[in-house]
Specification:
Layout (H helix, E strand, L loop, with lengths): L3 H14 L2 H13 L6 H35 L1 H11 L10
C-alpha cells in the first residue's frame, strides 16, 4: 500500500521545484498592471489570484498532514499510542 503522507510530501517537493508558479505569478502581475485590460484578462487575473490563494491553503494543509503522519510513524509514538489504548484491565479492546 502506498503511503499518502509520502505522496503528499512528494507533491510539495515538486511544487517547490517547479517554475510554473513563478511564471503564473508573473503573468498575474503583467495583467494587473496592464493600462486597459480586456474583460477576459480581468477574469483571468481573478482566476489566477483565486487559484494561488487556494493553492496556498492546500499547501499549508498538506504540510500539516505530512507532519502529522511523520509524527505518528515514529516508533515511540506508536508505542505510546498503544499504551494509551490499553485499558485498566490490560486489554486493548474497548467496550
Amino acid at each position: 500500500m502506498t503511503d499518502p503522507g509520502k505522496i503528499a510530501q512528494r507533491f510539495l517537493n515538486e511544487l517547490n521545484e517547479s517554475d510554473a508558479m513563478e511564471t503564473l505569478l508573473r503573468l498575474m502581475e503583467v495583467l494587473e498592471n496592464k493600462p486597459d485590460p480586456e474583460m477576459t484578462e480581468v477574469r483571468l487575473c481573478d482566476n489566477i489570484y483565486q487559484f494561488v490563494e487556494k493553492l496556498k491553503t492546500m499547501e499549508f494543509n498538506l504540510r500539516s498532514y505530512v507532519q502529522e503522519t511523520q509524527e505518528k510513524s515514529l516508533p515511540g509514538n506508536k508505542l505510546a499510542s498503544l499504551w494509551e489504548d490499553i485499558g485498566i484491565d490490560g486489554s486493548i479492546y474497548r467496550d
